[in-house]
Amino acid sequence: MRMNLENGQGGVLVTVMAGGLTFTSSVTRESVTKLELMPGSSVTLLFKATAIRWV
């Protein structure tokens, strides 16, 4: 999995490519700092079923 960060309105868009799929999530800047997220770093994806939106 590879992660990219992009400034979005009110937060940071985190894009992760895994298993041939692309996942995007909006994360607060505070969370990016606390989680020490950086472009290209490895991450683990967890899903909250009520928060999934299919596009």
Whole-number mean pLDDT: 78
Number of strands: 3
User: What general form does the structure show?
Assistant: globular
- Unreliable spans: none
Hey, roughly how much beta strand do the residues contain?
Answer: 35-45%
Give the N-terminus to C-terminus distance in angstroms.
Answer: 21 Å
Roughly how many Å is the radius of gyration?
A: 11 Å
The count of helical stretches stands at: 1
Strand adjacency order, main sheet = 1-2-3
Please state the structural category.
mainly beta
Succession of helices and strands: EEEH
Annotation keywords:
globular; mainly beta; 55 residues; three-stranded antiparallel sheet
Task: Give an account of the 3D structure.
The structure is a single chain. The chain has one helix and three strands; from the N terminus they run βββα. It has 55 residues and is mainly β. The chain has one helix at 29-34, and strands at 2-8, 11-18, 21-27. The chain has a domain at 2-39. A three-stranded antiparallel β-sheet has the order 1-2-3. 2% of the residues are buried.
Layout of helices and strands:
Blueprint: E1 2-8, E2 11-18, E3 21-27, H1 29-34
Antiparallel strand pairs: 1-2, 2-3
